[in-house]
Amino acid sequence: MIRRLVSIVIFLPLAIVLIALAVANRETAPLRFDVFNPDNPALTVNAPLFVWLLAAAALGIIAGGVGAWFSQGKHRKMERKYKREARKLRFEAEDTRRKADDGETPLALTRSTS
Question: Which segments carry the region annotation Disordered (predicted)?
Fold first, then answer.
């Protein structure tokens, strides 16, 4: 319930701002890819300004997500290591418990007489 309330409090104002931005910036704005000859129509794309603004925001969000994913790689690697270790220890504990139930003495619990 609180999560839904927080998302409404955050996303509703953001949606209002984006809608206002789109309505206020409906004029066509060119995006020129040729920096040496800006009048070249082959390398110019015309679209409403809000499209360019939303595309820039989307690229920023994607770039931030990719950067965060790469920076958290060492944490994911450690988690995989810990999961393998936990799985191994769980198997060993179950094996020891099974051997104890069968009446066998597991090797780890026998005392060496030297």
Answer: 93-114
Instruction: Judge if 18 and 66 occupy the same domain.
Output: yes
Q: Examine the domain organization and report whether 48 and 80 are in the same domain.
A: no
Helix (H, G, I), strand (E, B) or coil at 111: coil
**DSSP letters along 57-91, please?**
HHHHHHHHHHHHHHHTHHHHHHHHHHHHHHHHHHH
The reply to whether 60 and 80 lie within a common domain is no
| 67 shares its domain with 35 | yes
Per-residue pLDDT of the chain (114 residues; tens, 9 = 90+): 888 888 889 889 988 988 888 888 888 988 888 888 888 888 889 999 888 888 998 999 999 999 999 999 999 999 999 999 999 999 999 999 998 888 766 555 555 555
- Residue ranges making up the domain that contains 11: 1-71
* 112 φ, ψ (degrees, to nearest 5): -85, 135
In angstroms, rounded to a whole number, what is the distance separating the alpha carbons of residues 108 and 3? 49
